[in-house]
Write a structure and sequence with these properties.
alpha/beta, 320 residues
Length: 320
């Protein structure tokens, strides 16, 4: 196998016990990592002992108002000259010591310029969320490119920065992550990657533990930011909307709970799906909403506060 230089990038916010478990597992990977770059939001939540685990760990602290899903990761990527850059979130725990190795293997194929890992449910993961993990991250690996769009639609662009690796040279060639987005920077970049003729690999052998038991309002807020980010990038998502894929997951989830003889789960499935769709629909039409509604619907208030302030300044200049 060709030897690549790999840097790991992890933005953090109030990191806790899971992050303390993630770092040793990363440092124990079979494939060597050159450095682990961490941009932490809020220095008061940082445990200084984490930096002492290895000289490979570098930390920069920023204020909440400075964090941006795309812009922060873009700045992190721009600081690296590695062959491959691996982005992770603070709660993605490597399942074994082969995570990095299995992701790197995918880049042996010359047209693969991004690869993402399988996300396994944690022990406390609820039944419906377990099915969602299995739906989005199946047991079989896959490679997706432009030719898959007629069959897979928006799923062709699916890629998750919970644990995703990128070819840095091509990343720079395509301009990298968008500078300002409340969410979904990974799929926006993946869309540009596919449209440029490259491929995305899903590595089912590269595994992390990652799941959440979100309530209805949390689902609404996440999907609001998802819908808004897609509305901001019609060049990627206008032709391949997410509604069809979401409906497919709801139908399969319903069949699953009936098959395992737990039909009462249809009730939370209905409410969760309704809140997800409502959030997504509101996000798609965010330009028609007053700022007060946006702030109630988003999970990323600091980002929207900044955007709303910029928009207001522009209005004053044009009307003044």
């Amino acid at each position: 196998m060709k030897r690549y230089v790999v840097d790991v990038m992890i933005p953090t916010y109030k990191p806790g016990q899971e992050f303390g478990e993630l770092l040793p597992r990363l440092l124990n990977q079979t494939y060597p990592i050159r450095s682990i770059c961490i941009v932490n939001t809020g220095a008061s939540y940082w445990n200084p002992s984490w930096e002492q685990l290895s000289p490979k760990i570098y930390v920069e602290h920023i204020r909440p108002s400075e964090f941006d899903h795309g812009g922060t990761r873009k700045a992190m990527a721009d600081s690296s000259d590695a062959d491959l850059i691996l982005f992770m979130t603070q709660d993605a725990i490597p399942a074994d010591e082969y995570l990095v190795e299995h992701l790197v293997e995918k880049f042996m194929l010359p047209h693969v310029k991004a690869a993402y890992a399988r996300q396994l449910p944690k022990e406390d993961c609820r039944t419906l969320e377990r099915f969602t993990r299995a739906f989005n991250y199946p047991e079989e690996s896959d490679i997706k490119d432009y030719g898959d769009l007629p069959k897979m639609g928006v799923k062709t662009f699916f890629c998750s920065n919970v644990c995703a690796m990128y070819d840095r040279a091509v990343y720079e060639e395509l301009g990298g992550f968008v500078m300002h987005t409340p969410f979904n920077e990974d799929m926006i970049y993946a869309g540009h990657l596919v449209q440029a003729g490259y491929a995305i690999a899903y590595s089912a052998d590269a595994k992390v533990f990652h799941s959440h038991n979100y309530g209805c309002m949390a689902q609404l807020k996440r999907n609001f930011d998802l819908g808004a980010s897609q509305a901001m990038h019609p060049e990627i998502f206008e032709k391949y909307p997410s509604e069809g894929e979401g409906m497919k997951m709801v139908k399969r989830s319903a069949r699953y709970v009936i098959r395992i003889h737990r039909p009462w789960l249809l009730i939370p499935l209905f409410f969760q799906s309704a809140f997800k769709y409502l959030g997504y629909l509101l996000g798609k039409h965010f330009r028609s909403l007053p700022n007060s509604i946006i702030m109630r619907c988003t999970s990323n208030k600091a980002w929207w506060e900044y955007r709303c302030a910029v928009t207001e300044r522009k209005k004053r200049r044009t009307t003044g």
